[in-house]
Protein backbone atom coordinates (compact mmCIF):
# COMPACT_ATOMS: atom_id res chain seq x y z
CA UNK A 1 0.00 0.00 0.00
CA UNK A 2 1.14 3.45 -0.86
CA UNK A 3 0.99 5.50 2.36
CA UNK A 4 0.80 9.26 1.99
CA UNK A 5 1.07 11.00 5.37
CA UNK A 6 -0.60 14.42 5.40
CA UNK A 7 2.18 16.06 7.43
CA UNK A 8 0.95 19.58 6.64
CA UNK A 9 -2.36 18.83 8.33
CA UNK A 10 -0.70 17.10 11.31
CA UNK A 11 1.76 20.00 11.73
CA UNK A 12 -1.13 22.48 11.68
CA UNK A 13 -2.92 20.43 14.36
CA UNK A 14 0.24 20.33 16.50
CA UNK A 15 0.50 24.12 16.17
CA UNK A 16 -3.17 24.55 17.09
CA UNK A 17 -2.83 22.23 20.10
CA UNK A 18 0.18 24.24 21.32
CA UNK A 19 -2.06 27.31 21.56
CA UNK A 20 -3.92 25.65 24.43
CA UNK A 21 -1.34 26.83 26.94
CA UNK A 22 -1.12 28.77 30.21
CA UNK A 23 2.20 30.41 29.32
CA UNK A 24 3.15 32.57 26.33
CA UNK A 25 4.41 30.86 23.13
CA UNK A 26 6.81 29.30 22.26
CA UNK A 27 6.57 27.73 25.73
CA UNK A 28 3.66 25.40 26.45
CA UNK A 29 2.06 24.56 29.80
CA UNK A 30 -1.03 22.35 29.96
CA UNK A 31 -1.60 20.89 33.41
CA UNK A 32 -4.09 18.07 33.87
CA UNK A 33 -7.73 19.05 34.54
CA UNK A 34 -7.13 22.78 34.17
CA UNK A 35 -9.47 24.77 31.91
CA UNK A 36 -6.69 24.79 29.32
CA UNK A 37 -6.35 21.02 29.44
CA UNK A 38 -10.12 20.56 29.11
CA UNK A 39 -10.27 22.92 26.12
CA UNK A 40 -7.42 21.00 24.46
CA UNK A 41 -9.25 17.73 25.10
CA UNK A 42 -12.41 19.07 23.44
CA UNK A 43 -10.35 20.08 20.41
CA UNK A 44 -8.80 16.60 20.18
CA UNK A 45 -12.15 14.79 20.57
CA UNK A 46 -13.44 16.90 17.67
CA UNK A 47 -10.56 15.71 15.49
CA UNK A 48 -11.06 12.07 16.54
CA UNK A 49 -14.77 12.23 15.70
CA UNK A 50 -14.03 13.96 12.37
CA UNK A 51 -11.89 10.92 11.50
CA UNK A 52 -14.91 8.67 12.14
CA UNK A 53 -13.45 7.13 15.30
CA UNK A 54 -15.71 5.93 18.13
CA UNK A 55 -14.71 8.09 21.10
CA UNK A 56 -15.18 7.39 24.80
CA UNK A 57 -13.41 8.43 27.99
CA UNK A 58 -13.02 6.66 31.30
CA UNK A 59 -13.54 7.96 34.85
CA UNK A 60 -10.07 9.49 35.12
CA UNK A 61 -10.25 11.14 31.71
CA UNK A 62 -8.25 8.74 29.55
CA UNK A 63 -9.67 9.18 26.04
CA UNK A 64 -10.15 6.19 23.67
CA UNK A 65 -10.77 6.71 19.93
CA UNK A 66 -11.42 3.46 18.12
CA UNK A 67 -11.26 2.63 14.40
CA UNK A 68 -13.51 -0.42 14.33
CA UNK A 69 -12.02 -3.40 12.46
CA UNK A 70 -13.81 -6.15 10.54
CA UNK A 71 -13.62 -8.39 13.60
CA UNK A 72 -14.51 -6.24 16.63
CA UNK A 73 -14.36 -9.30 18.90
CA UNK A 74 -10.55 -9.39 18.58
CA UNK A 75 -8.48 -7.41 21.13
CA UNK A 76 -7.57 -4.17 19.32
CA UNK A 77 -4.12 -2.87 18.54
CA UNK A 78 -3.51 0.38 20.43
CA UNK A 79 -1.34 3.43 20.04
CA UNK A 80 -1.27 6.81 21.78
CA UNK A 81 0.49 9.05 24.26
CA UNK A 82 -0.24 12.17 26.33
CA UNK A 83 -0.95 15.86 25.72
CA UNK A 84 -0.39 17.34 29.17
CA UNK A 85 2.72 19.56 29.28
CA UNK A 86 4.91 20.52 32.24
CA UNK A 87 5.52 24.22 33.01
CA UNK A 88 7.43 26.12 30.32
CA UNK A 89 7.93 23.09 28.12
CA UNK A 90 7.59 22.38 24.41
CA UNK A 91 4.90 21.40 21.90
CA UNK A 92 6.05 17.93 20.76
CA UNK A 93 6.45 15.85 23.96
CA UNK A 94 3.52 13.43 23.94
CA UNK A 95 1.50 15.34 21.35
CA UNK A 96 3.41 13.72 18.48
CA UNK A 97 2.16 10.35 19.74
CA UNK A 98 -1.46 11.50 19.92
CA UNK A 99 -1.79 13.65 16.77
CA UNK A 100 0.77 11.48 14.97
CA UNK A 101 -1.28 8.43 15.98
CA UNK A 102 -4.39 10.12 14.59
CA UNK A 103 -2.64 10.91 11.32
CA UNK A 104 -1.32 7.33 11.12
CA UNK A 105 -4.93 6.09 11.32
CA UNK A 106 -6.15 8.64 8.75
CA UNK A 107 -3.25 7.69 6.45
CA UNK A 108 -4.27 4.02 6.65
CA UNK A 109 -7.93 4.92 6.06
CA UNK A 110 -6.99 6.83 2.89
CA UNK A 111 -4.58 4.14 1.66
CA UNK A 112 -7.04 1.27 2.20
CA UNK A 113 -9.81 3.14 0.40
CA UNK A 114 -7.45 4.01 -2.50
CA UNK A 115 -6.31 0.37 -2.67
CA UNK A 116 -9.95 -0.67 -3.06
CA UNK A 117 -10.22 -2.66 0.20
CA UNK A 118 -13.87 -3.40 1.00
CA UNK A 119 -14.49 -2.64 3.72
CA UNK A 120 -11.47 -0.37 3.96
CA UNK A 121 -10.73 -1.35 7.54
CA UNK A 122 -8.13 -3.71 9.11
CA UNK A 123 -9.16 -7.00 10.74
CA UNK A 124 -8.37 -5.84 14.28
CA UNK A 125 -9.69 -2.51 15.49
CA UNK A 126 -7.03 0.13 16.05
CA UNK A 127 -7.52 2.31 19.14
CA UNK A 128 -5.86 5.66 19.77
CA UNK A 129 -5.45 6.45 23.50
CA UNK A 130 -4.83 9.87 25.03
CA UNK A 131 -3.62 9.19 28.57
CA UNK A 132 -4.52 11.48 31.44
CA UNK A 133 -1.68 13.12 33.37
CA UNK A 134 1.48 11.49 32.06
CA UNK A 135 3.40 14.33 33.67
CA UNK A 136 3.89 14.37 37.47
CA UNK A 137 3.44 18.16 37.71
CA UNK A 138 0.09 18.36 39.48
CA UNK A 139 -0.22 15.14 41.50
CA UNK A 140 3.49 14.17 41.83
CA UNK A 141 2.80 10.81 40.14
CA UNK A 142 3.73 10.49 36.48
CA UNK A 143 1.56 8.33 34.21
CA UNK A 144 -1.53 8.55 36.44
CA UNK A 145 -3.88 7.46 33.64
CA UNK A 146 -1.81 4.48 32.49
CA UNK A 147 -1.00 3.46 36.11
CA UNK A 148 -4.74 3.20 36.79
CA UNK A 149 -5.40 1.48 33.43
CA UNK A 150 -2.77 -1.16 34.25
CA UNK A 151 -3.81 -1.58 37.88
CA UNK A 152 -0.34 -0.51 39.05
CA UNK A 153 -1.93 2.28 41.12
CA UNK A 154 -4.91 1.27 43.30
CA UNK A 155 -7.96 3.55 42.76
CA UNK A 156 -8.27 4.52 46.45
CA UNK A 157 -4.60 5.55 46.58
CA UNK A 158 -5.10 7.62 43.42
CA UNK A 159 -8.25 9.26 44.77
CA UNK A 160 -6.31 10.60 47.76
CA UNK A 161 -3.50 12.25 45.77
CA UNK A 162 -3.49 15.99 46.32
CA UNK A 163 -1.99 18.90 44.42
CA UNK A 164 0.00 21.84 45.82
CA UNK A 165 -3.26 23.63 46.68
CA UNK A 166 -4.47 20.63 48.69
CA UNK A 167 -7.13 19.71 46.12
CA UNK A 168 -7.49 15.97 45.79
CA UNK A 169 -7.58 14.07 42.53
CA UNK A 170 -11.01 12.62 43.16
CA UNK A 171 -12.67 16.03 43.50
CA UNK A 172 -10.69 17.62 40.70
CA UNK A 173 -11.46 14.91 38.15
CA UNK A 174 -15.16 14.94 39.03
CA UNK A 175 -15.35 18.74 38.74
CA UNK A 176 -13.73 18.29 35.34
CA UNK A 177 -16.66 16.04 34.39
CA UNK A 178 -15.05 12.62 34.83
CA UNK A 179 -17.38 10.89 37.28
CA UNK A 180 -17.96 7.28 38.25
CA UNK A 181 -15.74 4.89 40.20
CA UNK A 182 -11.99 5.11 39.53
CA UNK A 183 -12.02 1.31 39.84
CA UNK A 184 -13.69 1.24 36.40
CA UNK A 185 -10.48 2.51 34.75
CA UNK A 186 -8.54 -0.77 35.09
CA UNK A 187 -8.27 -2.83 31.91
CA UNK A 188 -7.94 -6.61 32.02
CA UNK A 189 -4.62 -8.00 30.74
CA UNK A 190 -5.09 -8.89 27.09
CA UNK A 191 -7.53 -6.02 26.55
CA UNK A 192 -5.23 -4.99 23.71
CA UNK A 193 -3.14 -7.28 21.50
CA UNK A 194 -0.30 -4.73 21.30
CA UNK A 195 0.54 -1.13 22.12
CA UNK A 196 3.00 0.99 20.10
CA UNK A 197 3.77 4.59 21.11
CA UNK A 198 5.34 7.25 18.86
CA UNK A 199 7.38 9.81 20.82
CA UNK A 200 10.21 12.28 20.36
CA UNK A 201 13.48 10.83 21.69
CA UNK A 202 14.04 13.57 24.29
CA UNK A 203 17.75 12.87 23.88
CA UNK A 204 20.47 13.52 21.24
CA UNK A 205 21.39 10.02 19.99
CA UNK A 206 19.29 9.77 16.80
CA UNK A 207 20.22 13.26 15.64
CA UNK A 208 23.94 12.67 16.39
CA UNK A 209 23.85 9.40 14.43
CA UNK A 210 21.80 11.07 11.69
CA UNK A 211 19.14 8.31 11.90
CA UNK A 212 15.43 8.61 11.15
CA UNK A 213 13.92 6.18 13.68
CA UNK A 214 14.67 4.57 17.05
CA UNK A 215 13.09 1.18 17.82
CA UNK A 216 12.88 1.26 21.61
CA UNK A 217 13.81 -2.03 23.29
CA UNK A 218 13.50 -0.95 26.95
CA UNK A 219 12.21 1.92 29.09
CA UNK A 220 14.25 3.12 32.08
CA UNK A 221 13.00 2.55 35.63
CA UNK A 222 11.84 5.86 37.16
CA UNK A 223 11.83 6.69 40.87
CA UNK A 224 11.05 9.86 42.80
CA UNK A 225 11.27 10.81 46.46
CA UNK A 226 10.50 13.83 48.61
CA UNK A 227 12.80 14.98 51.41
CA UNK A 228 11.79 17.72 53.87
CA UNK A 229 14.07 19.46 56.40
CA UNK A 230 12.73 21.79 59.10
CA UNK A 231 14.50 24.23 61.43
CA UNK A 232 13.71 27.07 63.89
CA UNK A 233 14.20 29.80 61.27
CA UNK A 234 14.56 33.30 62.67
CA UNK A 235 15.83 36.74 61.91
CA UNK A 236 18.68 36.87 59.37
CA UNK A 237 20.33 39.65 61.39
CA UNK A 238 19.57 38.66 64.95
CA UNK A 239 20.53 34.97 65.00
CA UNK A 240 24.29 34.46 65.30
CA UNK A 241 25.86 31.83 63.04
CA UNK A 242 26.80 29.60 65.99
CA UNK A 243 23.13 29.46 66.99
CA UNK A 244 21.72 28.49 63.60
CA UNK A 245 20.18 25.23 62.43
CA UNK A 246 19.54 25.95 58.77
CA UNK A 247 17.57 23.29 56.80
CA UNK A 248 18.71 24.82 53.53
CA UNK A 249 22.28 23.75 54.32
CA UNK A 250 21.17 20.12 54.69
CA UNK A 251 19.20 20.41 51.44
CA UNK A 252 22.19 21.91 49.63
CA UNK A 253 24.45 19.08 50.79
CA UNK A 254 21.80 16.56 49.69
CA UNK A 255 21.52 18.11 46.21
CA UNK A 256 25.28 17.67 45.77
CA UNK A 257 24.96 14.09 47.07
CA UNK A 258 22.23 13.23 44.50
CA UNK A 259 24.58 14.35 41.73
CA UNK A 260 27.54 12.40 43.17
CA UNK A 261 25.52 9.24 43.81
CA UNK A 262 24.32 9.14 40.19
CA UNK A 263 27.80 9.83 38.78
CA UNK A 264 29.39 7.18 41.04
CA UNK A 265 26.86 4.39 40.35
CA UNK A 266 29.29 2.60 38.03
CA UNK A 267 27.24 3.27 34.90
CA UNK A 268 26.44 6.27 32.67
CA UNK A 269 22.86 4.96 32.54
CA UNK A 270 22.12 6.27 36.05
CA UNK A 271 20.69 9.80 36.30
CA UNK A 272 19.77 11.85 39.37
CA UNK A 273 18.00 15.23 39.42
CA UNK A 274 16.73 17.64 42.05
CA UNK A 275 13.95 19.30 40.06
CA UNK A 276 12.06 20.87 42.97
CA UNK A 277 13.61 22.88 45.84
CA UNK A 278 11.08 24.90 47.83
CA UNK A 279 12.32 27.18 50.61
CA UNK A 280 9.86 28.56 53.18
CA UNK A 281 9.27 31.38 54.05
CA UNK A 282 11.49 32.42 51.10
CA UNK A 283 12.45 35.85 52.45
CA UNK A 284 15.93 37.25 52.06
CA UNK A 285 16.09 38.36 55.70
CA UNK A 286 14.58 35.23 57.23
CA UNK A 287 16.47 32.01 57.93
CA UNK A 288 14.70 29.12 56.10
CA UNK A 289 12.31 27.16 58.33
CA UNK A 290 11.03 24.50 55.94
CA UNK A 291 12.85 23.14 52.87
CA UNK A 292 11.44 20.58 50.45
CA UNK A 293 13.37 18.70 47.76
CA UNK A 294 11.82 16.44 45.10
CA UNK A 295 14.40 14.06 43.65
CA UNK A 296 14.20 12.02 40.43
CA UNK A 297 16.46 8.95 40.04
CA UNK A 298 16.43 6.64 36.99
CA UNK A 299 18.37 3.80 35.46
CA UNK A 300 17.70 1.06 32.93
CA UNK A 301 18.95 -1.34 35.63
CA UNK A 302 16.48 -1.54 38.53
CA UNK A 303 18.81 -2.88 41.28
CA UNK A 304 21.51 -0.31 40.42
CA UNK A 305 18.95 2.48 40.67
CA UNK A 306 17.79 1.12 44.03
CA UNK A 307 21.37 1.17 45.38
CA UNK A 308 21.60 4.84 44.45
CA UNK A 309 18.23 5.50 46.12
CA UNK A 310 19.45 3.81 49.32
CA UNK A 311 22.61 5.96 49.40
CA UNK A 312 20.55 9.14 48.92
CA UNK A 313 18.11 8.20 51.69
CA UNK A 314 20.93 7.37 54.13
CA UNK A 315 22.75 10.64 53.40
CA UNK A 316 19.49 12.60 53.64
CA UNK A 317 19.05 11.34 57.22
CA UNK A 318 22.76 11.83 58.08
CA UNK A 319 22.78 15.48 56.91
CA UNK A 320 19.65 16.19 58.92
CA UNK A 321 21.16 14.63 62.05
CA UNK A 322 24.50 16.42 61.65
CA UNK A 323 22.83 19.80 61.21
CA UNK A 324 20.14 19.22 63.82
CA UNK A 325 17.27 19.72 61.40
CA UNK A 326 14.49 17.06 61.56
CA UNK A 327 14.20 15.09 58.33
CA UNK A 328 11.25 13.38 56.64
CA UNK A 329 11.80 11.11 53.65
CA UNK A 330 8.88 9.96 51.48
CA UNK A 331 9.14 7.66 48.47
CA UNK A 332 6.75 8.83 45.75
CA UNK A 333 7.37 5.99 43.27
CA UNK A 334 10.00 3.41 42.34
CA UNK A 335 8.88 1.54 39.23
CA UNK A 336 10.57 -1.39 37.45
CA UNK A 337 11.91 -0.90 33.90
CA UNK A 338 9.87 -2.24 30.94
CA UNK A 339 11.09 -4.42 28.08
CA UNK A 340 9.62 -4.08 24.59
CA UNK A 341 8.07 -7.07 22.87
CA UNK A 342 10.53 -8.45 20.27
CA UNK A 343 7.75 -9.07 17.72
CA UNK A 344 6.64 -5.44 17.86
CA UNK A 345 10.25 -4.23 17.66
CA UNK A 346 10.64 -6.44 14.57
CA UNK A 347 7.45 -4.95 13.06
CA UNK A 348 8.85 -1.46 13.63
CA UNK A 349 12.14 -2.39 11.98
CA UNK A 350 10.33 -4.02 9.04
CA UNK A 351 8.26 -0.83 8.66
CA UNK A 352 11.48 1.20 8.54
CA UNK A 353 12.83 -1.04 5.79
CA UNK A 354 9.57 -0.79 3.81
CA UNK A 355 9.60 3.01 4.25
CA UNK A 356 13.32 3.17 3.33
CA UNK A 357 14.16 4.86 6.64
CA UNK A 358 17.35 4.42 8.66
CA UNK A 359 16.92 3.11 12.20
CA UNK A 360 18.59 1.69 15.29
CA UNK A 361 17.54 -0.07 18.47
CA UNK A 362 17.81 1.99 21.65
CA UNK A 363 16.52 2.39 25.19
CA UNK A 364 14.27 5.16 26.46
CA UNK A 365 15.70 7.14 29.38
CA UNK A 366 12.47 9.08 29.76
CA UNK A 367 9.49 7.19 31.07
CA UNK A 368 6.28 6.98 29.05
CA UNK A 369 2.79 5.54 29.31
CA UNK A 370 4.21 2.50 27.50
CA UNK A 371 6.01 1.67 30.76
CA UNK A 372 2.66 0.86 32.40
CA UNK A 373 0.90 -0.36 29.26
CA UNK A 374 3.53 -3.14 29.33
CA UNK A 375 1.49 -4.53 32.27
CA UNK A 376 -1.62 -4.70 30.02
CA UNK A 377 -0.15 -6.01 26.74
CA UNK A 378 3.07 -6.34 24.70
CA UNK A 379 4.55 -2.90 23.94
CA UNK A 380 7.24 -1.08 21.98
CA UNK A 381 8.02 2.53 21.11
CA UNK A 382 9.03 4.45 18.00
CA UNK A 383 11.38 7.39 18.55
CA UNK A 384 12.05 10.28 16.21
CA UNK A 385 14.92 12.74 16.57
CA UNK A 386 14.47 16.11 18.28
CA UNK A 387 16.81 19.06 17.77
CA UNK A 388 19.89 18.89 20.06
CA UNK A 389 18.01 16.23 22.03
CA UNK A 390 16.16 19.03 23.84
CA UNK A 391 12.84 18.44 25.58
CA UNK A 392 10.86 19.83 28.52
CA UNK A 393 11.95 23.24 27.18
CA UNK A 394 10.25 25.78 24.87
CA UNK A 395 13.00 25.16 22.27
CA UNK A 396 11.87 21.52 21.91
CA UNK A 397 11.60 20.82 18.16
CA UNK A 398 11.08 17.93 15.78
CA UNK A 399 10.95 18.72 12.04
CA UNK A 400 7.91 17.95 9.88
CA UNK A 401 10.11 15.49 7.95
CA UNK A 402 11.04 13.65 11.18
CA UNK A 403 7.42 13.57 12.36
CA UNK A 404 6.25 12.41 8.93
CA UNK A 405 8.74 9.53 9.01
CA UNK A 406 7.60 8.54 12.49
CA UNK A 407 3.96 8.58 11.43
CA UNK A 408 4.64 6.43 8.38
CA UNK A 409 6.51 3.86 10.47
CA UNK A 410 3.71 3.89 13.06
CA UNK A 411 1.06 3.45 10.33
CA UNK A 412 2.93 0.52 8.81
CA UNK A 413 3.52 -1.05 12.22
CA UNK A 414 -0.13 -0.73 13.25
CA UNK A 415 -1.22 -2.21 9.92
CA UNK A 416 1.08 -5.23 10.39
CA UNK A 417 -0.12 -5.75 13.98
CA UNK A 418 -3.80 -5.36 13.04
CA UNK A 419 -3.87 -8.18 10.48
O1 LIG B 1 9.77 12.55 32.96
C1 LIG B 1 9.57 11.84 31.99
O2 LIG B 1 10.34 10.96 31.67
C2 LIG B 1 8.36 12.04 31.14
O3 LIG B 1 8.68 12.94 30.12
N1 LIG B 1 7.26 12.53 31.92
MN1 LIG C 1 7.50 14.77 29.42
MN1 LIG D 1 6.22 12.49 27.04
MN1 LIG E 1 7.07 10.49 28.82
From TrEMBL:
Q: Where does Zn(2+) 1 bind?
A: 82, 93, 199
List its EC numbers.
3.5.1.87
List positions binding Zn(2+) 2. Answer: 93, 135, 392
Do the record's keywords include Zinc? yes
Keywords, in A-Z order? Hydrolase, Manganese, Metal-binding, Zinc
Q: Which Gene3D superfamilies match?
A: 3.30.70.360, Zn peptidases
Q: Does the keyword Amino-acid biosynthesis apply?
A: no
Q: Which GO terms describe its molecular function?
A: hydrolase activity, acting on carbon-nitrogen (but not peptide) bonds, in linear amidines; metal ion binding; N-carbamoyl-L-amino-acid hydrolase activity
Give the cofactor note text.
Binds 2 Zn(2+) ions per subunit.
Cofactor(s) needed for function: Mn(2+); Zn(2+)
Quaternary context: Homodimer.
NCBIfam families in UniProt: hydantase
Family per UniProt?
Belongs to the peptidase M20 family.
Protein name from the UniProt record: N-carbamoyl-L-amino acid hydrolase
> Which lineage?
Bacteria, Pseudomonadati, Planctomycetota, Planctomycetia, Pirellulales
